[in-house]
Write a structure and sequence with these properties.
The chain is 29% helix and 31% strand. It has 308 residues and is α+β, with helices and mostly antiparallel strands.
Length: 308
């Protein structure tokens, strides 16, 4: 097998803000109020402790450990075993004067031929997009607004994002779906599908109104119920928000033999269709969520007035 070869990828941006301001933002990577990592569209950086040498974690399937940290100036993450190869990525802030600095992200990983091909085909477009969106958030948080158009997500990055988006999992109908339980206390069919909510995604169930094209039949603080009645069956669906995420629960009650016969083929297509609908709406709302640099007020820089 050919020897591994180091792949290098470097991004930099000049930011019209003091290095101290930008460095303070970098030091908040992985914190609950992290203003830089481009969530919720991309997986959040999660470490097992505050940013410091020895902290373990990663984002998504990429795992690493903090091996160097000069507060306000640089941080280096070395790849863990099982990743695309041995190497590191690091973020550096270089002063260019009292009100300007250069932010640089460097990736250097030794990869074999297969890993290099995978990196070029699928990983690099996502990596490049995430880094540039981090730089966008640096400017948003440090300057209070982005002085240029946001980074454009190329088609391959959007495709990879779609393919690896979280998928709903089956759960019991939650007790918190009180409106649903009251509407159809003894349903002939019921199921529920759950997805975790990413940082910044809406916790108001009314934000999920477009998940199904049915009239609203009830609303509570953590539940929105939709549904429709017909001569052969009654249908209800509830969007329930809790601390763990969002659940789409459905219940059906038959009125007659036609309703039971009608639901035989529907029962087959219902689960994959509901999973698709929930995942699509989950992704749509994640994309509509303002970036961290907008939704978080930062003590190290002026707050953004933008809400989009």
């Amino acid at each position: 097998m050919p020897a591994a070869r180091t792949v290098r990828n470097t991004h930099h941006r000049i930011v019209a803000a003091p290095a101290e301001t930008v460095g303070a933002l970098v030091d908040r990577l992985s914190a609950p109020d992290d203003p830089l990592f481009p969530t919720p569209v991309w997986p959040a950086m999660v470490l097992d402790r505050p940013l410091a040498v020895g902290a373990d974690g990663g984002h998504g399937s990429i795992r690493y450990r903090v091996t160097a940290h000069e507060p306000g100036r640089s941080v280096r993450f070395d790849m863990s075993e099982g990743g695309p190869g041995a190497g590191y990525h690091r973020l550096d802030v270089e002063p260019l004067g009292p009100d300007r600095c250069r932010v640089t992200h460097t990736l250097a990983v030794a990869m074999d031929t297969r890993s290099r091909a995978l990196f070029k085909l699928a990983i690099e477009p996502v990596h490049d997009t995430m880094v540039e969106e981090i730089f966008d958030n640096v400017e948003r948080a440090a300057l209070g607004a982005l002085p240029h158009r946001p980074t454009r997500r190329p088609p391959r990055a959007r495709l990879v994002n779609r393919l690896f988006w979280a998928r709903p999992r089956a759960v019991p109908v939650p007790a918190a779906a009180s409106l649903l339980h009251e509407a159809l206390p003894r349903p002939d069919f019921a199921d529920a599908w759950h997805m975790p909510l990413k940082p910044g995604m809406p916790r108001d169930p009314r934000a999920w109104r477009n998940i199904l094209p049915f009239p609203v039949r009830g609303a509570a603080e953590r539940e929105l119920m939709l549904g429709e009645d017909a001569s052969h069956l009654d249908f209800r669906a509830s969007v329930v928000i809790d601390d763990k995420g969002v659940t789409l629960a459905t219940a059906v009650r038959f009125h007659n033999a036609f309703g039971r016969a009608y639901f035989v083929p529907v029962r087959l297509v219902h689960p994959p269709l509901v999973r698709l609908i929930l995942q699509r709406e989950h992704r749509r709302l994640a994309y509509a969520t303002p970036p961290a640099g907008v939704r978080n007020r930062t003590p190290s820089g002026p707050p953004s007035n933008s809400t989009a």
